[in-house]
Amino acid sequence: MPYKEPKIEKLFYSMGEVADMFNINASTIRYWEKHFDHLKPRKNNKGNRQFTQKDLDDLKVIYHLLKERGLTIKGAKSKLKQNKNDVVENTEIVERLQKIKSMLNEVKENL
Fold it and tell me: Where is the HTH merR-type domain (predicted)?
């Protein structure tokens, strides 16, 4: 998963920070926001989106379904409607496995 953990945990992250974390365009996030009702970042007085950790967690799941599993928007929405808990759990497992793989590759390179 190309998701990069934020270096510093904050209450709110900007659109640019979130786009960088997922290595996608801000327009992609705005598009997903229109199609996934539970993804609703708050907006400040200027109208700039402010993402919480919950928003990031929701984006991880959406990213996993759309980008990694290759589902369509309709397919991802259906999957989330069927059993969101299983999808979230699977996303977390994949993320942990990718971290382990990365650590093992690092160890291998240092041998």
Answer: 12-82
For the chain, what is the domain count? 1
In CATH, what number is assigned to the domain containing residue 60? 1.10.1660.10
Would the pTM of this model clear 0.85, i.e. be above it? no
26 touches 41 (CB < 8 A): no
Tokens encoding 99: 């971290």
